[in-house]
Structure formats: structure tokens, C-alpha cells
Write a structure and sequence with these properties.
338 residues; seven-stranded parallel sheet; binds uridine-5'-diphosphate-4-deoxy-4-fluoro-alpha-D-galactose
Amino acid sequence: MKILLSGGAGFIGSHTYVELINAGHEAVIVDNLYNASEKVLERLETITGKPVTFCNADVSDKEAMRAIFAAHSFDAVIHFAGYKAVGESVRKPIEYYRNNLDTTLTLCECMREAGVRCIVFSSSATVYGPIETSPLVESMHPLDCTNPYAWSKSINERILLDVCTAMPDWSCALLRYFNPIGAHESGLIGEDPVGVPNNLMPYITQVASGKRERLNVFGNDYNTPDGTGVRDYIHVVDLARGHVAACEYLLSHKGAEIINLGTGIGYSVLDIVNAFQRVNDVPVPYAIVERRAGDMDSYYADPTKAKTLLGWQAEKTLDDMCRDSWRWQSKNPNGYRD
Ligand code: UFG
């Protein structure tokens, strides 16, 4: 298959590129490098041993996207491009809705014009909303989302479901990611947050490297075994392989499917800290602080549908996730910046 990766230079996009090439597919990366580095491209060439086809374009730029669709014959699109910071989305709702919806609508228009009918969308478990009944199953009716980022994912899901209803020869996979961590085992590509990391694993790796003094653990009075929040952490390479499986599935199936990509296993914040210290033999000083607003006790997937439908399940362990996250951080103390 030949696949367009919108936002393909980002954390999940770049890992998906590698797994697509490993599986014998062709891929074209479209990215405006707003939240990604050009260095990713040479790293991808080193990992795959093949030249990367890259288009520096904004996915909401219709003319640029038209030209890209005209220059290639795509079988499918994987749509990663979008803003992704929850806190920022609360401060900049207009920018978030404009960007995260325009990119999807432009892609759909270009796909229709070019006769491309398969799309995989990068959704998030956040669309389940503030729900306290894990494991989360795709058939659950979503509650209200709690921020513009989450709403933008939820509205994008709605758009693509409606598109597939109106055009029954289209097929679509709405992949709801849980908490992606880890990095490619080469240590050449990984997550490169700008500024102070919001998420747990990049914060831990920066504490372990001495860049930050200590980890603040947001609350130890949750209704969980050790009192700290429980999440479904998934290795980004497993997640990437889920996208390959979804593309291959869509080629022979019509209609839209919502699919969780998680492991089904919940780990607490302290489970992660302890595993990280043990596996990498490096200390991670931490302090228990106040709860973070909006956090929930437990949030993990029921991954049954992905296994039944796609034949995919996560294979990597928590130790793999901790080791690979640390290898990436150690080899690239400043991410992709020199
Ligand atoms: N945590 C800390 N200290 C930190 C950062 C996080 O204790 O410095 C804790 C949180 O309280 C939570 C857990 O670590 O219990 C995971 O927090 P993350 O911020 O890494 O992830 P979230 O589950 O809050 O959010 C993630 C994604 C969102 C997505 C959401 C729901 O970052 O984009 O999952 O799927 F919307």
C-alpha cells in the first residue's frame, strides 16, 4: 500500500512510518514541522535504510495538499496532524478547533477528489471523558469532554463517522490511543516535548537525566492500589504497529470502526517510577504533591476489539517502555535540538 502520513514527522507518526516500511508499504510524510524536527527525516532514513519522501506542507493548505494527492497514488491516509496540548487548548480554543478540524476537512476533500477512500484517524482515549468505569469499551457512550483538545478529537470522530455514512465505499478507523510512551529501540527517534513536559514519562526521563530536580506525583489519595493514578501505558512501537494493522484491515472492509489501542493493563504512577529505576538503574527522586485538576483514578482500555478485528495486540512490556524511553533520552539529552 502507499500511504500518506499527515503529521508524519511527529512522535507517533515517525514510529508509524518505520513500521509501515518494515511491513513492506510505501509512505509519504506531510508535515509543516510546527511541532516536529527536520532531523527526524534523516533518522528515519538511517533506521529504514531508504530515502524518505517528505513534503513540507500544512495539511490545511488545500492547494498544497491537492498537489500532493495529484503527484502520488495513495491507497490510504493516516491523519496524525494536529495540536495536542490539553492545557494550551483551554487557552487557545480557536486555534485548536481551527487547526484540528481544518486539517481533517481538507484531507477529506482532497481524498474525495482523488478517489482515496481509506483513512485512519489519530484519536484519543480522552474522548471517553471523565468516566470512572475502566476498562473502557468502544461501545460506551462518551460523556462530555473536558477541554477543547478532547472535543476536537471527538468532533473529528463525528465528522469521519458521518463521511463514512454518506459515502459507503469509504472506510475509516478511529484509533483511540491510551498513553503512548517508549521510543524506537535504536534510540534515534522518540518523544521531544517543547519546554516543561506535561506527561509523566518525558518528565521522568528529564528527572533521571538531572535536567529537573524531582518528579511531582500528582496525588496519592486516589482510589487505586497505591493511591496514585492508574493509566494504560502503551509502547509507541506497538501503537505504530496498530496503525499498520488498521490500514491493512481497511483495504478490504468498508465503513467506520472505533478501536481502542491500549494494553488493557493499568499501571500506577509509582509502578512506572519503580520500574524505571529498576530497569535503568538510575534514581528518580519524587515528591507527592496535590492532585492535578481533571485527573481521574483509573483509565485503561478493553483492547479486545483491536485483537478481534485487526489481529493486533500490544506485545512490549513495561520494562521495554522504560528501557527504550531512557535510551532515547540518554542518547538525545536535548531531543532533536543540538
Ligand atoms: N503525573 C504525575 N506527574 C507528572 C505528570 C503526570 O504524577 O508530572 C500523573 C498524572 O496525574 C496521571 C499520570 O501521571 O495520573 C499520567 O499523566 P499524563 O499527563 O502522562 O497522561 P494523562 O493520562 O493525563 O493524559 C494522556 C494524554 C492526553 C490524553 C489523555 C487521555 O496526555 O493527551 O491521556 O487519553 F488526552
